UniProtKB/TrEMBL annotation:
Taxonomic source organism: Mucilaginibacter polytrichastri
Record-linked PROSITE patterns: HIS_KIN, TPR
Protein name as annotated: histidine kinase
Reaction it catalyzes: ATP + protein L-histidine = ADP + protein N-phospho-L-histidine
Signal peptide span: 1-44
Enzyme's top EC category: transferase
Amino acid sequence: MFFCNINIKNLLHNEAFSPYLLKYQPLKFTLTLLFLCLCLTCTAATGNSNVDSLKQILKQAGSKTSADTINVNRYNILAAAYFQSNPDSAFYYGQKGVDLSRKIHFDAGLANGLLQTGRVDYFKGKSAKAQRELTEAVTLFKKLGDKKGIATCYEYFGAMYTLLADYTLAIKYLDLAIDINNQAGNDEWMQTNLYKNMGNVYFSKGELSKSLDYYYKALFIAIKNHYTLLSGNLYNNIGAVLQNMEVYPNALNHFKKALEILNGTDNTQALGTINQNIGEILLAQNNLDSAIIYLNKANYIVKKQNDKDGLSSVYTDLGLCYAAKNDYKNAISYIDTSLQIAKKYKIVYNQAYALIGLANVYNQQKNYKSAYKNALQGRQLSIKLGNLSIKANAALQLSKALAGLGKEASAYQFLKLYINFKDQLKSNESIEKSTTYNFELTFALKERQLKQQQHEKDLIYQQKAHNQRLINLIFVVIILAMLLITGIYYREKRQQQNINVMLEHKNHEVLNQKTDLDEQAKKLHDLNNLKDRLISILAHDLRAPLSTLRGLFGLLQDETITHQEMVAMIPNVLKKLEYTSDFLDTLLFWINSQMESFDTSVKTFSVSELVQNEADSYEAEAGLKGIRYSTKIPQGLTANADPNSIRIVVRNLITNAIKFSDYDDSIQISIQQDEAAQKIIVKVTDTGVGMSADQLNKLFKSKVESKNGTNNESGTGMGLLFCKDLIERCHGEIWVTSKPSVGTEFTFTIPLIC
C-alpha cells in the first residue's frame, strides 16, 4: 500500500492578490489605478472580488506620494501575480520592493515585500530565512495596525510549520489567523484559504476526518462566492483524502473535477499536484505505465517551478513505479535523489516517505541490511510525524528486513506492531469513511440549498424582469397615444397655418410693392454716396500734386527761372508726373474695387519692396516740413494679398502722418513678421499732434470731419475708410493707437506667404 504524499505547498498558495497586499498613494491615484486594474484583470479567474480588492487597497493608501513608493507597490503586485506561475520572478520583484522600501523608509511597502519573499522562501524550503522575513513583516504590520497583513503572515507561518512537521505551531498560527480575520470583518476569501490550510495540517497528521471537515467548509464558501481556482484546489485536496482512504473511484472523480476547473489557467502548481495524485492512484492500482505518464507531467511542472517539496515527492513516486517494474537501478536513483532534496530543505514528511520507499526497494532486492537501515530511520521520522499510516509502512519494512537478516524474534515484534497499526487504521478508516459519507451528504445538502436559493433568486429576477417588461409595454402604449394625439394636433395646426399663410401672402404683395420702392431709393442713395466718395478722394489726394504742377508751370510761363534752373528741376517734375500718373491708376483701381463685379487679385509679392518704394516717394515731402523720416524694413518679406490695395493703404497712411506732423517731429515706417500668427505687420508711427479718444472713435467711419494739417493741409476725411475697405478685402486687419501731443501709430496686417 502506497501513501499519498500530497504536495502541501502547491495546495496552500492559490491566492491572486491579497486585498491588503499594497498601500496605494492618494495623490498618485491616477498613475497607479491603471496598473492595478491591469493586474486585477489578469487574476480575475481566481474568483476573488476585484472590486473588494481595489476598495481595500484604496482604503489602506498611505501618505507617501513619491515615485519610489509607486514603484514599490508595483513590484509587490508583480510578485503576487507571478507566484503561481514563476516563483523565481515573484522573489525577484518582492526583493526589489524590499530593497527600495528600506532605502526610502516605506514601512507598508517593506511589510508587503517581506510577505512575498517569505512566501517564496518557505515554498523553496528556506524555512529559516522565511521565518526571519515573516517575523519582521508581522512587526511592521502591527506597527501599521494592519490586521489582515498580520493574519496573512500567520497563515504563511502555518503553512511553513506544516512542511516542517511541527503541527502544534502550525495549528497555533492558523488559529490566530482565523481569530484576527474574524476581528477584521471576516474576509471570506481569506477564511477559505485558512480553512484549506488547516485541512492540510490535519491531513499531514493523518487525522482525515478533521481534514475533511475543514476542506468541506472551505469548499462551500468557495462555491458560494464563485472562487473558481480555490474550488479546483479544494476538490483536489478532498480527492487526496479519499485516495488515502483507498476510495479510488471517488478520489479520481474529485481529481478530474479539479482538472476540469483548473485546465487552461496559469495555476501550474495545482496542476502539477493533481497529476501527481492521479499518478499515485494508478500506482496503487498497479497501472504502472499510465502512472509514470502522469508523474512525468507533474515532474515537468515542479522542475519548472523549482518546487523542492514537489520535486522530492514526485521522485519518490517515480522510484516506486520503477521498483514495481523491477527496474531497481532507476528506482534507487529516483528515491535517493528525493531523499537528498528532502534532507537539504528539511522536509520531514518527504524524508520519511523516501526512506521507507528505499527500504521497500532494498527488501525487494534482498539487500536486507540497507533495507533495515533506511526503514529504521523512516520509523524514527514517522514517530515525529505521528502519522499512523507512515508508522505502519515503516514497521512492515522493518519486519521484512529483520526477517531477511535472520532476526525472527525482532521481525515478529515489528510484524505484530504493523498488524496493530493496520487494525487501528482499519478502525479509523471505517470511522473516516463513515465521516466522509456524512460530510458528503452534508455538503450535498448545503449545495442543494445553495442551488435552491439561487433558483429562488432567479425566479425573483424573472418576476422582476416580467414586471419591468409589462411596465415598459404600458409606457410604449402611452407614448404611442401621445404621438397620435400630437399628430392630430399637428395636422390641425398645419391647416390653420396654411390659412394664415394665404392671408399673409396677400398682405405681403402689398408690402412688397412698398419694399421695392424703398430698395430703389436705397440704391439711389448708395450711388449718391459713391459719387461723394469719388469726389472726396479726388479732392483729398490730387490737390497737392496738381498744385505743385500748377506752380511749376506758372514759373515757366512768367520766365522767372533760368534755363539752367529749369533743367535742374526737370527730374523732380518728371518724378512728380510719374507719381501722379501712378496715383491716378491706383485711384481708378480703388474706384473699381467698390463695384460689385470687382475681383481682388491676391498674389504673392514683396512687401518689403512695395513699402520701401512708397516710403521713398514721400521722403522729400517730409523733408520740406523738417520732419525726421526713417524706415525699418527688413528685406525679403513676402505676403499673400493684392499689392495695389496695399500700395494705396501705405501711401494714405504716410501722407496722413506727414500732414499731422510738424517741424522736428519724426515718422517711422516699419515691417515685422509674426510667424506664430502667420502674418505681416506694417506700422506707420509719428510723433505729431495725435488724436483724442473722441476722434479715434470716429475713424474708419463713412462720415468724418477732416481737420487741416500742421501746414493747413486739407482733406476729406475719407481716406482711412478706403484703407479699411482695402485691408479687409485682403483678409487683414487695421487699427490705430494715439494720444494728443504724443503721436499716432497706424498698424495693419496681411497674411504671410505659406
